[in-house]
Structure prediction request, 107 residues.
Amino acid sequence: MVTENITKYLPLSESTYYIMLSLVEPLHGYGVMQKVEAISEGKVIIGPGTLYGAFSTLEKEGLIQMVKEEERRKSYALTRKGKLVLAEQVERLRIMSKNGQAVLPQL
Prediction:
């Protein structure tokens, strides 16, 4: 059971948000880079340095975990806590978008 306050991880940076979105299902590093680009429709490109730095931080925070290692490929996936943090970020973005559209209905 996750009892830790997940709001301490929020807001997520854009790159961290997309990396976590891509890890809803287990994936290796290169696959994450490809999926981030696909999910963001080419607007977010993650390089290896950014990706592996994020992996290290997210793993230390308990938001992702390595789920498989074969040869030189490590696959990662969100932990339960990571899924809760991601869901909270998605909700924050939904509310922010709704509020923005209410103030500026012409958007």
About this structure: The domain at 10-103 is CATH 1.10.10.10 (Arc Repressor Mutant, subunit A). The chain has four helices and three strands. The chain has a mean pLDDT of 94. Strands lie at 27-28, 64-70, 73-78.
